[in-house]
Amino acid sequence: MQKDMQSNLFDASAGGRIGVLPNNVLAKVNSSAIRAANRALVLRALFPRETKSRAEIARETGLTRVTTSEVVATLIEDGLVLETGVRDSGNRGKKGISLRIDPDSRHMVVIDLSQPDAIVGAVTNLIGQVVYRKEEPFRFDKSLETDTVVNMIEMLVDAATSPVLAVGIASPGVVSDSGVVIRSTSLGWSNVDIAHIVRQRFPVHVYVHNDANGAALAEEQFGGGGSDLIVIHVARGLGAGVMVNNQLVHGSNYSGGEIGHVVIRPDGKTCRCGKRGCLETCVSSSVIDQCMAEDPARRRDILHEAGVMMGNALSMPVGMLDIPRVVFYGPSSIVNDTFIGAVGATINDAVVTGFRTKVNVSISRLGDDIVVKGETAAILRNELGI
Ligand SMILES: [Zn+2]
């Protein structure tokens, strides 16, 4: 079904089939959009490490053989795809030339501003590998100078050994879709148009995301996959990225996923935001660490209780949106089997019915580079349609 839709919409060689679209839609589907969409279909078929013949790609994408060959020719010319040898195409024993993505034909420069004590910069390649990494210690008790970010990008652009496809920046806090950091307490930023500042220095596209939104893109692209998922970052604050139908939920205030300051205990402790009993006052890493330090014998119970609270808070959005997968990342002293087990049991007790299956709650396997991989995924999505 999906393939047929893509074929009808985007296969320019499909002749009469495209004519069934209404005129107003046809007007929008101009030839360059068709070319970009066809390139994206072929790249997605090869992503990240697939080797396929032109015939196999045509079968998988629904594009005609002629269109597939034309698209592949432009991708080879641009250096994005390589011919790697002869293989059995699976089509009555015919041989085809294998194609694959050349991972280092383009590099991406990524900055992660969400770490607790350092600015992390990385050069990544087309399949999400980190080819160069740089950390600069930084104490987030003062405002971050934008020059610090620009200087690190300059160093990373120099370190890249291939043309830089784009720059990606992951920031804590609320980020607009045009790359303005509307508010970030930990960076001390308010309405900082970091995308514009960086673009003035480097002639490439600049993408800026909230770090947890980036992590959701990473899980979708490089982790366990899935078009509907919630990714939660447990840190000094709490962050979440929500993906529904393969799209990030930004919300009308760009605050989609901001669960930390939703009140769950109206009579609870005063939060740094001024309200009482926010989720963050109950299950942030600093609160849990403090509780465990005060009563080490109850470590396991404290983690279990925190997991139950988190599970209760998540049950409604998970149930309401029919989310099948929830992924956590954060310090391993907290985001461990005890915590995850309690979250999973609580959510499933709340939402499982006769007509919906168990929700998978897990720890991300992407490790410390989840946010870096997320910005890489964002660039791949926007620049190449992968
Ligand atoms: Zn709060």
Automatic annotation (TrEMBL):
PROSITE patterns the UniProt entry points to: ROK
What superkingdom heads the lineage? Bacteria
- A UniProt-annotated Pfam family: ROK
Annotated coiled-coil positions are none
Concerning its family, UniProt says: Belongs to the ROK (NagC/XylR) family.
Question: Which protein, by its recorded name, is this?
Answer: NagC/XylR-type transciptional regulator
Q: Which organism is it from?
A: Bifidobacterium goeldii
**Lineage, opening ranks:** Bacteria, Bacillati, Actinomycetota, Actinomycetes, Bifidobacteriales
